[in-house]
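User: Is it possible to get a 3D structure for a protein together with its bound compound? The compound here is EPS. I've pasted both below.
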Amino acid sequence: MYLTRIKYLTAGESHGKGLLGILEGIPAGLSITEEEIEHQLKRRQMGYGRGGRMKIEKDFAEIYSGVRYGKTIGSPIGLLIQNNDWVNWTEKMSVTPVKNEAEKITLPRPGHADLAGAMKYGFDDIRNVIERSSARETTMRVAIGAVCKKFLSEVGVEIGSRVVQISKATDESQIPSDKSMTDLNNTVDKSPVRAWGKDAEIEMMLAIDDARKKGNSVGGIFEVIATGCPYGLGSYVDADRKLHARIAKAIMSVNAFKGIEFGSGFGQAESFGSDVHDEIGFDGNRFTRPTNHAGGIEGGMSNAQPITIRVAMKPIPTLAKQLQSVDLNTKENKLAFKERTDSCAVPAASIIGEHMMGIILTDAILEKFGGDSMNEVKSHMEISAKY
Ligand code: EPS
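Assistant: Yes, that's possible. Here is the predicted structure of the complex:
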């Protein structure tokens, strides 16, 4: 199980007319504006190392349905994002047959969906694969996630993110514990690489410059933190209901994400149990945890600590300095197909991670507390949410 109470679907090709999204299951009475969604879309477009496409697009999601007088009415929320670049692709991406079809792309890029996609669907033109497997699709995920994040902010859950590694440049700095996730985002959004530490920021930018000069690309690691979750989102009773599994599935559904860890994650493999299990105290009011190695999830349930994940993103596989490939038709050895690309998209990836987390936590809160309207959800939480 991926989602229990909400559903979403995206459609759209990278150079088609635009992107469509439908989000179903958001309660009535949530205030949401196109400007709030636009703010999140802008954050996804930023970041040092992005290529030419982000100069063309000014992503804006028009709300087509599900909202009246600024508030959700419980019906599916329809969103439409136009691709500005479409004007340059009307022939090449025409829905109807054209006299002069575009030249076929036959040289698959290693690391992208090209070869497996062409084999799977029996295409002799990789363009049919490229268009939907492009990371452009994540634009709509962020728009949908922006509605979810607005829902979460109304019930006291905030999600922030930051980049902690690009190539070999790492940011070891700790976020001060008094910082809210809004503060975290407001600060790192001003950094070209979304880093908290200033020394690391320079190192990261140098790594991107180096890759760009060589016609190469670099990946990295980002962190996403969600605060304000009550006890008991998800459950230990069944595999499908475990919260960390649901977050992992959402994160791993983004093309370039290769790995996820919760809390101190992989580091726990080399530690003693006594070093990584967060001891339990009581302050007279609530249970306390001096550490959060578990990353806010124990037994597949939120434990009222911040939910913390780190995600590894691979270097983008479209390379200016192409890798070896083989022509689909002639089977000749040739260099892979090359087109406009980004040398690094880890800062944008951190925004996508924030929004995927937002989708899952919205679903998990609606699963536990339910309600057709925001008033109902909030009153259910007031009665039964434990922190
Ligand atoms: C992207 C849009 C794409 C790429 C990038 C992400 O636009 P275009 O292909 O027109 O340049 O910039 O996607 C990839 C590099 C990829 O390999 O998928 C976006 O909107 O984020």
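The domain at 7-384 is CATH 3.60.150.10 (Chorismate synthase, AroC fold). The chain has a mean pLDDT of 97.
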